[in-house]
């Protein structure tokens, strides 16, 4: 065997090496050697309980959060639907009823 690992996305044994990357001809997934554990190099975002969050999840706020630049407060138990994960300090982008578009830190939410 050539020592080239199976594709981490579709498990195809037909992956090949092209320069510094491995490429799967079946699903067109590309990955760097040594990054087989993380699909697409994406950062894994976890909630306060350690559950993995994904785009479109519904979460609940576990702490009163003051909204910067206003007198509004996001109360404990506020349900936030259809979250979107983004890179940065505030890793959840969402829309909260009565407040609007805002960013949240994953450490202050729990998955429903």
From TrEMBL:
SUPFAM superfamilies membership: Prokaryotic SH3-related domain (SSF82057), Zinc beta-ribbon (SSF57783)
Tree of life domain: Bacteria
Gene3D superfamilies tied to this protein: 2.20.25.10, SH3 Domains
Domain Protein YjdM C-terminal residues, every copy: 45-111
Domain Protein YjdM N-terminal: 5-32
Recorded family membership: Belongs to the YjdM family.
Name of the protein in its database record: Zinc ribbon domain-containing protein YjdM
Source organism per UniProt: Gimibacter soli
């Amino acid at each position: 065997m050539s020592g080239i690992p199976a594709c981490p996305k579709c498990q195809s044994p037909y992956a090949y090496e092209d320069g510094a990357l491995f490429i799967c001809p079946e699903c067109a997934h590309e990955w760097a050697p040594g990054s087989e554990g993380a699909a697409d190099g994406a950062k894994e975002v976890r909630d306060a309980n350690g559950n993995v969050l994904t785009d479109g999840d519904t979460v609940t706020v576990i702490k009163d959060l003051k909204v910067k630049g206003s007198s509004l407060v996001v109360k404990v138990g506020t349900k936030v639907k259809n979250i979107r994960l983004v890179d940065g300090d505030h890793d959840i982008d969402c829309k909260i009823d009565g407040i609007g578009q805002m960013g949240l830190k994953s450490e202050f939410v729990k998955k429903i």
